Amino acid sequence: MESLSPEEARVLGCLVEKERTTPEYYPLTVNALVAACNQKTNRHPVVEYDDLTVERALRSLDSKGLIGLARSSGGRTTKYLHRAEDTYEIDNEQLAILAVLLLRGPQTPGELRGRTERYFDVAKTPEAIEIVLDDLMARAIPLVHRLPRAPGQKENRYRTLLVEGLEEPAQPAAPPPNNSLVDRVTLLERQLRVLAGSLDIDLDDPSTDGPGRASE
Q1: Is 0.85 surpassed by the pTM of this model?
Q2: Structural domains of the chain sorted by starting position, each given as residue range(s) with its CATH number in brackets
Q3: Higher pLDDT, 112 or 149
């Protein structure tokens, strides 16, 4: 299975989304796809694709068997439709979840439930979403991967394996040292040196046998 570039993923996700949410405007022209790719809502990251970027993605998707052409009634305007269900051999529910992952990046089952509501006639529970995710992970060639749960997270996040170049999210950085403790140690060291000076003790002299021995 060939991986998708980020541009191909965005275009394919948009075709699936618009088929489900605004079927009256589907299939889509290049201009409509550019507008869909560059939406400010339901997208992460937000992008600014031009016509050439979308057209290159469409040609590559066509070579992978993921899109097809549809002519308008007048035959002058080329429109595009997706063939993801047939190419990936997935059902409607699996396709909806993959579309959101393509458009939004890693998601929890709860987030997927809310963001796929527009795709389904019947509302899905988070448990139902997890069953679909399990099916996508259990395939001979998995399409989804469960990410490790980060500290403080209540749910695992899932990402699609269709897109090339995706990396595991960076692990949270180690907490900074306790500055108050560092300050206290520094203060104690300073006080010790003041005390040693008053007793004429050189703390840096290796021959000094502790603070209790003063030089004669």
Answers
A1: no
A2: 1-88 (1.10.10.10), 90-169 (1.10.10.10)
A3: 112
